[in-house]
Write the structure tokens for this entry.
Amino acid sequence: IIGFTILLSNYFSRMLSFPIIKLKKILKLISNGVLPQKLNTSLEDEVGDMIRTLNKIILSLKKTAAFAEKIGQGKFDTNFKPVSKQDILGNSLVEMKESLKSANSKDEVQNWIIEGLASTGAILRSHDNIKDISEEVIEFICHRINALQGAVFLAGKQNDESILNLKSTYACQKVVQFFSSRRRHTRLPLV
């Protein structure tokens, strides 16, 4: 009987300690940044509850890691919902995403302006007459801002009257024909 009791006690001890040892190993992995696969359990006791809770934590950390990776790739349109209002990591990542998105947008605008100014400067340096400069600049600007048409007028005077001289156009044929007289009085509105 004593041998049977020792054997039975050893069996129950292993049955109880094996899942706890397994949990301990998984927690060590997580503490080292490794997110293991889902743990299967058929236990319906406190240890089983701990394993199911640990599975939820692992899943949450995997979703958070995937979101952080998308942010790192510059995919600021990625949606993510923190686990709760108290989710410090999740909420911090959402705030970081918004800050990076705003900074990225400002950088894009600034780069767009700098590139545009540099290209316009190159156009100005590559020509020595106003006609060629105006033609290339208006074409560049229309392409740059996705405009369908544009015109360059130079202000001048004729018989003590202010006038605008058309120097170049970029547009469809109908618009070019409209501006073909090449001069407009400044009293007339331009749209």
